[in-house]
Amino acid sequence: MTWDNLNLLNVLKNNGVVVMPTDTLYGIVGKAQSESVVNRIYNIRKRDTHKPCIILIEDVGELGKFSIILSDEQENKLKEYWPGPVSVVLDCPHESLSYLHRGTKTLAFRVPAHASLRELLVKVGPLIAPSANAEALPPAKSISEAKKYFGNLVDLYLDGDLVTSKASKVIKLHKDGSVAVLRE
């Protein structure tokens, strides 16, 4: 799967919403640093407004865009998980990011294993990337399933064939480097 598609780049750069395969599942993605895009994705998915979404980033350096300052212990621990299918929850108390953390004062990030997906992130910036499904329904495994969920509510569907991966593991990474598993 390649994510180097001119239409995809244009839609994402212009604050569009895309259903596309990520490194784990089909996601409904858009610019994480655009409050209007994030709110649109919540509305399309009918997502619980108190539940933050995972943000795909190109590398650990992108955390600074979200006012995340890692301890040495956290930075060392992240090397075990990234790039890969592990989403890491970090503290983010900044109120300016409440549209993302939804009052939880935490954000979950993942550095995808696929180099071409990381290259897309270099070009368009961090992407909010919840799974492509309406709240409480199973994630779409194909574009046709995603279209049944969302119809014409999204700007672009990018087909990556059948996706049979599972959702990412989710961990909470504390300042001291200790880890709590939130989703296996």
Automatic annotation (TrEMBL):
<dbReference type="GO" id="GO:0061710">
    <property type="term" value="F:L-threonylcarbamoyladenylate synthase"/>
</dbReference>
<dbReference type="InterPro" id="IPR006070">
    <property type="entry name" value="Sua5-like_dom"/>
</dbReference>
<keyword id="KW-0067">ATP-binding</keyword>
<dbReference type="GO" id="GO:0006450">
    <property type="term" value="P:regulation of translational fidelity"/>
</dbReference>
<dbReference type="GO" id="GO:0008033">
    <property type="term" value="P:tRNA processing"/>
</dbReference>
<keyword id="KW-0547">Nucleotide-binding</keyword>
<keyword id="KW-0963">Cytoplasm</keyword>
<dbReference type="GO" id="GO:0000049">
    <property type="term" value="F:tRNA binding"/>
</dbReference>
<dbReference type="Pfam" id="PF01300">
    <property type="entry name" value="Sua5_yciO_yrdC"/>
</dbReference>
<keyword id="KW-0819">tRNA processing</keyword>
<keyword id="KW-0548">Nucleotidyltransferase</keyword>
<dbReference type="GO" id="GO:0003725">
    <property type="term" value="F:double-stranded RNA binding"/>
</dbReference>
<protein>
    <recommendedName>
        <fullName>L-threonylcarbamoyladenylate synthase</fullName>
        <ecNumber>2.7.7.87</ecNumber>
    </recommendedName>
</protein>
<comment type="similarity">
    <text>Belongs to the SUA5 family.</text>
</comment>
<keyword id="KW-0808">Transferase</keyword>
<dbReference type="InterPro" id="IPR017945">
    <property type="entry name" value="DHBP_synth_RibB-like_a/b_dom"/>
</dbReference>
<dbReference type="GO" id="GO:0005524">
    <property type="term" value="F:ATP binding"/>
</dbReference>
<dbReference type="GO" id="GO:0005737">
    <property type="term" value="C:cytoplasm"/>
</dbReference>
<dbReference type="InterPro" id="IPR050156">
    <property type="entry name" value="TC-AMP_synthase_SUA5"/>
</dbReference>
<feature type="domain" description="YrdC-like">
    <location>
        <begin position="2"/>
        <end position="184"/>
    </location>
</feature>
